[in-house]
Amino acid sequence: NYRCRSAFKLLEIDKKHYILCQGHIVVDCGAAPGAWSQVAVQRVNSAGLDSNASVGFVVGVDLQRITPLDGAFFLSNADITDPATQDKIKDILPGGMADVILSDMAPNATGVRDLDHRKIVGMCLTLVDLAHSILRPGGTLLCKLWDGSESTVLRNKLVQCFSSVKTLKPQASRKESSETFYLA
Ligand code: SAM
């Protein structure tokens, strides 16, 4: 049982693009209520349920409280854009590095489409900087945005830092939404 239907978007993306592997170290940004973290815990075996596979690690971060989950380490009431939070994540990560950064983060929507778009792109840009400090070479960043005029700014920045950048529109996203994922 997943905490939220957003789990199906990550499952769909992972099934097609093999982002999460056993033993991986994952940072889940905007993790509350915790469905993506549930998927990550299963895929990377961070609860150690598969004794034959390597054991991964999952850190989830959110402004809101995240209910505890076996196999995940949560930072609740924490802002990922705050350098203090980023330092904490670095301290928590085994070896200070991650294989995968996931972001399903969303700002509180104002309903003004362009404003919301700019806000979420700004958050994603912060994650590219975070990736520079904690993502292992060859690592993966998956981030959600609401498509708009600034999307190319983000995409161009990703292209500069990653060997491949894909634009994904999972079927599990609602049809009318501008929701898009960049997989870098
Ligand atoms: N992926 C989650 C799941 O499957 O349960 C759902 C995430 S929900 C769509 C977006 C979350 O992003 C919200 O819980 C919100 O509090 C969080 N968020 C927004 N801005 C944030 C920030 N600056 N730092 C951390 N979390 C943030």
TrEMBL record:
Gene Ontology biological process terms in this record: mitochondrial large ribosomal subunit assembly
Source organism: Pleurodeles waltl (Iberian ribbed newt)
This protein's UniProt keywords: Methyltransferase, Mitochondrion, rRNA processing, S-adenosyl-L-methionine, Transferase, Transit peptide
Superkingdom, taxonomy of origin: Eukaryota
Physiological role: S-adenosyl-L-methionine-dependent 2'-O-ribose methyltransferase that catalyzes the formation of 2'-O-methyluridine at position 1369 (Um1369) in the 16S mitochondrial large subunit ribosomal RNA (mtLSU rRNA), a universally conserved modification in the peptidyl transferase domain of the mtLSU rRNA. This activity may require prior 2'-O-methylguanosine modification at position 1370 (Gm1370) by MRM3. Essential for late-stage assembly of mtLSU required for efficient translation of mitochondrial DNA encoded proteins; methyltransferase activity is not required for this function.
Ribosomal RNA methyltransferase FtsJ domain boundaries: 2-184
Name the UniProt record assigns to this protein: rRNA methyltransferase 2, mitochondrial
Gene Ontology terms: cellular component: mitochondrial matrix
Signal peptide bounds: none
Catalyzed chemical reaction(s): uridine(1369) in 16S rRNA + S-adenosyl-L-methionine = 2'-O-methyluridine(1369) in 16S rRNA + S-adenosyl-L-homocysteine + H(+)
Catalytic site: K144
Protein's cellular compartments: Mitochondrion
Family: Belongs to the class I-like SAM-binding methyltransferase superfamily. RNA methyltransferase RlmE family.
GO molecular function: rRNA (uridine-2'-O-)-methyltransferase activity
